[in-house]
Write a structure and sequence with these properties.
Elements lengths: L1 E7 L8 E3 L9 E2 L2 H10 L4 H4 L3 E5 L1
Antiparallel strand pairs: 1-2, 1-3, 1-4
């Protein structure tokens, strides 16, 4: 169980989610939402930019 990070295609909430992918081409999984946010901050994402992301619990 973990958290994956997605965003709606084109920023339109009616569109499906596209996910942050790992090196294997599968959605990258994080232990917690906070760990995902820490990872994104390392790559220059701000809290304001992350507002539009979806942090989804996944098996």
């Amino acid at each position: 169980m973990g958290v994956r990070v997605g965003r709606h295609v084109g920023g339109i909430t009616l569109n499906p989610l596209e996910y942050l992918l790992g090196s294997d081409g599968e959605p990258k999984m994080f232990e917690t939402e906070e760990k995902a946010k820490e990872f994104l901050r390392e790559y220059g994402w701000t809290d304001e930019e992350m507002y539009w992301l979806v942090f989804e619990q996944a098996d």
